[in-house]
Amino acid sequence: MTEPILVAKKDATDNADFFLLPQMANRHGVITGATGTGKTVTLQKLAEGFSERGVPVFMADIKGDLTGVTQPGGGNPKIDARNELLGVTPAFEGFPATLWDVFGKQGHPLRATISEMGPLLIARLLQLNDTQEGVLSIAFKYADDNGLMLLDLKDLQSLIQYVGTNAAELTLQYGNVSAASVGAIQRGLLQIDEQGGDLFFGEPAVKLDDFMQSVGGKGVLNLLAADQLINAPKLYSTFLLWLLSELFESLPEAGDLEKPKLVFFFDEAHLLFADAPQALIDKVEQVVRLIRSKGVGVYFVTQNPADIPEKVLAQLGNRVQHALRAYTPQEQKGVKAAATSFRVNPALDTETVITELGVGEVLISTLDEKGVPTIVDRAFVVPPVGHIGPITPEERAALIANSLVAGVYETVIDRESAYELLQAKAEAKVAEQQATAEAEAAAKQADDEAKAEAKASRGTSSRNDSLLEAVTKSVARSASSSIGRQIGSSIVRGVLGSIFGGKSKKSWF
After folding, report:
1. Which of 82, 148, 366, 370 is the most exposed place for a label (fewest CB within 10 A)?
2. How far is CA 207 from CA 6, 33, 125, 352, 483, in A?
3. Cβ 69 vs Cβ 52: under 8 Å
4. 3-state DSSP of 411-465
């Protein structure tokens, strides 16, 4: 049986220890509390405990100070004082880690393809309504039907442009494609591009096996640099949800294990559920409910349990609650909700204690050997043995250069995909249209020349006909004139002849 993880203690005078059982770690958990109450230190403590037992971990480094876990701790007066209070003699040590960064600056590039993320998560990323999501689904369906690989952002941009240009044709085959929806998708893609989405989408896409490695018997801590990524909260939360979904889809059934295959910490979890459509929340609930059978433990880190939907919160058996503030009616409501989420301890006024907890002090309840939550109790988190705080740029560079995936993801691969194929299709269409236009122009020119030639031919014939007619008329006139003169002469002669030449030669005398 794998050794339990010591999470918290009462104090040096009280032997009460609070453990997280590795065989129950894939029943998930939650770490909650107001800003500055010690959630990040608790997260680091748990991550160290899993790594020590050979369990790899994935977690986002929101503030940039989790990288200290790679270096041995010590030399911190506050940590020394807390260890003394708890009667702990720490063995300071560092832990193996792989540093990741969507933007490729503070760690190895971490990418996914458009096809892997799919229309549901892309729609959430672009904040589309149902109608717009329908058009996006039509675009994905067209790509599947026509063998168009969607790898990077320009693939999807070119696909949406093609869908908009050929909306009338696609509407008949797939359903209504409105220009307004196409425009909304294009605007959303432009915003994601400006936020660095062009760096996130592409190849080589991350291989999940690279998250599940160990070194020297210790599980590797996968740290995602998220200090910049958090400025694009939809991209951050959608990426983590995609990663969780990929683990669910890819890993085989494992059943109950002595320890998880991987533990996944979802920091700033409220970003996942903020303004999320019900379909997405249902998807998260399904993944959280079923992924434990794949050997993966999921731990949400957020300010208040109320940030997490009830159906999801009900799946989180291991709970660590830091202090909450209750100055406003809304905050008071949140405190009450947090208090009622624990198994009742008759000796503890949970609702009151939540507002009194000091930094590093928690209310804790974990699952026992039978999977039943223990009654809630008050305790101090045992400090981590790794360094608390960020490492130097030189230490970061050394970690990146010597990691297990050094050089694997640094070079971008741009295979022939939807962008190139649609561009070639558009060029072929333009060439076809140009050839058709040229053929039509040539045919028109030939027709015009034929008409001109025929017209010219008719003109020559007409002139010849006119000349013949003129000659004929002239001849006729000449003949008529000649005949007229002859007849006239005969008539004159006849008349004159009868007057003068017709006398009898006989003398009148």
Report:
1. 370
2. 32, 33, 22, 46, 117
3. no
4. CCECCCCHHHHHHHHHHHHHHHHHHHHHHHHHHHHHHHHHHHHHHHHHHHHHHHH
Cis peptide bond prior to 204, omega within 30° of 0: yes
Q: Judge whether 122 and 136 are in contact, CB under 8 Å.
A: yes
Looking up tokens 């007057």 gives 499
pLDDT at res. 455: 83
Q: What is the pLDDT of residues 438-449, one digit of tens each?
A: 888 988 888 888
Give the integer Cα–Cα distance in Å for 417 and 234: 26
Q: In this structure, which amino acid lies at residue 57?
A: V
Cα 259 to Cα 261: distance, rounded to the nearest angstrom: 7
Task: In whole angstroms, give the CA distance from residue 28 to residue 294.
Answer: 12
The residues facing 73 across adjacent strands are none
pTM over 0.85: no
**Residue 176 reports pLDDT greater than 70:** yes
Q: How many whole angstroms separate alpha carbon 18 and alpha carbon 378? A: 10
Q: Helical H runs in 292-357?
A: 310-313, 329-340, 350-354
Q: How far apart are CA 326 and CA 116, in angstroms?
A: 42
How many CB atoms lie under 10 A from the CB of residue 400?
18
Domain segments of the chain: what residues?
5-111+208-401, 125-195
∠ CA 475-478-479 to the nearest 5 degrees? 85
Render pLDDT for 178-190 as a digit per residue (tens, 0 to 9). Answer: 999 999 999 999 9
- Residue identified by tokens 């790898």 is 151
Sheet holding 221-225, edge to edge: 14-20, 5-11, 377-381, 361-365, 318-321, 29-32, 296-302, 262-267, 57-61, 221-225, 97-101, 108-109
Rg (CA), the chain: 45
What separation in angstroms does the CA of 58 have from each of 99, 162, 167, 342? 10, 38, 42, 26
Q: b/e per residue, 198-226, with b = 16+ CB within 10 A?
A: ebbbbbebbeeebbbeebeebbbbbbbbb
Helix (H) or strand (E) segment spanning residue 156: helix 153-165
Which of 109-123, 426-440, 449-463, 466-480 comes out lowest in average pLDDT? 466-480
